[in-house]
Design a protein that fits this description.
It holds the Pfam family Glyco_transf_34. The chain is an alpha/beta fold. The protein has a single domain, classed as Spore Coat Polysaccharide Biosynthesis Protein SpsA, Chain A (Alpha-Beta Complex), CATH 3.90.550.10. It has helices spanning 28-47, 79-95, 117-128, 151-155, 158-164, 211-220, 223-227, 233-244, 246-249, 292-309, and strands spanning 65-71, 98-103, 134-138, 142-144, 191-196, 199-208, 252-254, 262-263, 278-280.
Length: 311
């Protein structure tokens, strides 16, 4: 009996025809629309999920003020620096303020003069005390003399500041065409500074903590400005910034020098008088009769007596 063999398969099968994907029929323009629509949906989900930006973090004002002082490395651990530190600490403790004492050598200045360290130290203090309301930078060659004067009242109090502000006043006297805003209100002010006979003075400065202050200090500390060969380093850099950046000028108040920055000698600006909040040893030297240590000693007994009598 013969059995039939099954038919052999064709040795030349028909070519494989893959299924066509539906995406093949979507035009490029349609695909772009779908992607954009998907991104919009994701954005809406993120927006309503509670992750949306809620504005700057509120500042509680604890402590109300941080007093910042930076010492050149040569004054580190000297009797002079301890004298100045004692002054800052006693004043801060009286009012519940914070203190931030730093050394210029703590910061990388890329070859710029050590005086630039005041700018980054103020920024550093804001990071260390994020809830402080104000930062008061006062130079290493200065003493706080009036323990009863509070920064938030004596300097930044609305009524007091309105009375002191020099409006429509040249930034660099006597003939600068750039002047302080004539319509500025105390509530608008985030930076308080003084002038001496040469222009803006940065030995005593008050800054209101917040997003604007961070922007301002970051701008001031920009490497470009530090690399310029300004005659008075950060001080002339600040004069440049203020005159070219309305965003900064619009928050600036210049007040009479004795409000926060009276000098120990009349040769360089307004001279200190009893009752002023601080005295700055303008142009004091490292050694000799006009040394900073000798200048501080002139006022040592007075400030210690004032602080003791105020307890």
């Amino acid at each position: 009996m013969h059995y039939a063999y099954p038919p052999r398969k064709d040795s030349h099968p028909a070519p494989f025809k893959p299924r066509r994907s539906p995406l093949r029929f979507i035009r490029r323009s349609q695909l772009k629309t779908i992607v954009l629509f998907g991104l919009v949906i994701l954005g809406l989900i993120w927006l309503f999920s509670g992750s949306k930006y809620k504005g700057p973090r509120p500042i509680t004002g604890k402590p109300p003020v941080v007093v910042v002082t930076v010492f050149d490395d040569k004054y580190d651990n000297t009797a002079y620096s301890q004298h100045i530190k004692d002054n800052r600490i006693q004043y801060a403790e009286k009012h519940g303020y914070g203190t931030f004492i730093a050394k210029a050598g703590d910061y990388e200045l890329s070859g710029a003069p050590a005086s630039w360290s005041k700018v980054v130290a103020m920024r550093h203090a804001m990071a260390r005390f994020p809830n402080c309301k104000y930062v008061w930078y006062i130079d290493q060659h200065a003493l706080i003399m009036n323990p009863g004067s509070k920064v938030e009242e004596h300097v930044m109090g609305a009524k007091r500041l309105e009375e002191m502000m020099l409006k429509d006043h040249p930034i660099v006297p006597p003939e600068s065409i750039i002047k302080t805003f004539s319509y500025l209100k105390a509530s608008d002010v985030n930076l308080v500074i003084t002038q001496d006979k040469d222009g803006l003075a940065t030995t005593s400065v008050v800054v209101r903590n917040g997003e604007w202050a961070k922007f301002f200090l970051d701008t001031w500390f920009d490497p470009m400005y530090r690399s310029y060969n300004f005659q008075k380093a950060e001080t002339h850099a600040l004069e440049h910034i203020v005159q070219w950046h309305p965003t900064i000028l619009s928050k600036l108040a210049i007040v009479p020098q004795r409000a926060i920055n009276a000098y120990s000698t009349v040769d360089y600006g307004a001279q200190y008088k009893d009752g002023d909040i601080a005295v700055v040893f303008a142009q004091c030297s490292g050694t000799g009769t006009k040394s900073c240590a000798n200048e501080a000693e002139r006022y040592s007994q007075q400030w210690r007596a004032s602080f003791g009598a105020d307890h």
